[in-house]
Amino acid sequence: MSRQQGILKLVGTLNGKCFYQLNGQYIVRKAVGPSRERINNDPAFINVKGNNQEFAAASQLSKAIRQGLGDKAQQFKYNHMASRLTGRCRKIIQKGSGQLGQREANLLNAPSELIGFQLNSNVAFNQLYNSKINVTANTQRSLITVKCPQSTAKQQHKMPKNATHYQLIAAISCISKRQWQPHLNAYKTAHPEQNTLGAAVQSEPLPLNTTHNYLQLQWHSPTPNGISTEVAITVWLGIAYQKQQNQTYQTFKTPQAMECIAIL
User: Fold this and answer.
1) pTM across the whole model
2) Taking burial as the number of CB atoms within 10 A of a residue's CB, which of 60, 142, 209, 236 is the most buried?
C-alpha cells in the first residue's frame, strides 16, 4: 500500500490496482478478489459460489476416474491431462438436474462429453488404431467385454523403427454419481464402495503387419452383485508398441495412446 503520486488522484480499479481515499490520503494498492466468506454469504456472489461448488465436484469426478485407471492414467497421460479431464467433467455437471451449484454430478447424464477423450492429447488413439470395437456388459454389469473382430495396428510414421508387436490395454474405472447435500454443504458420493473400482486387462503381444481375429478383453467386477446403475462404468482402450527380445517384450514409451471408448 502506498500513496498516489502526481496531480491527478484516482478512485476505482485499473490494471489490477485499486485506487481509493483513506484518512484524507489517496492510496494505491494491488487489487484483490472477494474473500471466501463474502463469496459464501453475499447474495451478489451466488453465481460465483455455485460455479465454485460445481468445479469442486468436477475435480472430484476427474480424480476418481484417474484413481480407477490406476497406473494406466500415469502411463498414457500427456499435456495437462488432469485439468483437461476436469473440464470435461464440468461440462457433464452443467447438464445435470438441479440449480447452479447443486446440479447432479453424474457421468451418465452426458456420456458423449467424455467418450473420445484422449489421455494423450499429443497422439489420438485412432491415429494408431482404428479397428472396429464392440463393448458389452451382462445384466448385472459385473462382466464387461471389449471385442475386436479384426485387429490391425495402423502403420504410420510415428511408429518406433524397431517395433515388432503391439499390445491393446482395456481399462475400467467405475464412477459413482455425486449429489449436493445441503446439510453437509458439499457433494456426497452415492456409492462410495463402488466408486473408483477399476482394473486393466491387456492382450498378448500382437505381431505387427498381421490381422488378428476375434480378440476379446474382459473385466470381472469384484463386487458379488455387480455394479449399481447409479455408477458409470467408463471403458478405456489403449495401444502401445513393443519390441521382441528373445522371449521378452520391451514396451516403447512413445507413441502410445488411450481413449474413453464407452460409458455403461
Assistant:
1) 0.85
2) 236
247: left (phi over 0), alpha (psi -120 to 50) or beta: alpha
Q: What are phi and psi of 36, to 5 degrees?
A: -60, -40
Beta strands in the chain (DSSP E): 2-3, 12-14, 17-22, 25-30, 134-137, 143-151, 165-176, 178-181, 186-189, 198-202, 206-207, 212-220, 231-245, 248-263
Cβ(194)–Cβ(223) below 8 Å: yes
Return the pLDDT at 22.
74
> Using alpha carbons only, how large is the chain's radius of gyration in Å?
25
To which H or E segment does residue 58 belong? Answer: helix 46-69
DSSP 129: B
Instruction: Tell me which H or E stretch contains 89.
Output: helix 81-94
Cα distance from N-terminal residue to C-terminal residue, the chain: 56
- pLDDT, tens digit (0-9, with 9 covering 90-100), for 12-60: 666 667 766 677 777 677 766 666 666 565 567 677 878 889 999 999 9
Average pLDDT of 65-88? 93
Contact 52, 39 (CB under 8 A): yes
E strands, 71-197, are: 134-137, 143-151, 165-176, 178-181, 186-189
**Which stretches of 107-215 are DSSP H helices?**
125-128
Closest to 127 (Cα-Cα) out of 148, 167, 158, 149: 158
CA angle 124, 237, 111 (to 5 degrees): 85
**The dihedral formed by the CA atoms of 236, 242, 246 and 248, expressed in degrees to the nearest 10:** -30
What does DSSP say about strands 143-151 and 212-220: parallel, antiparallel, or unpaired? antiparallel
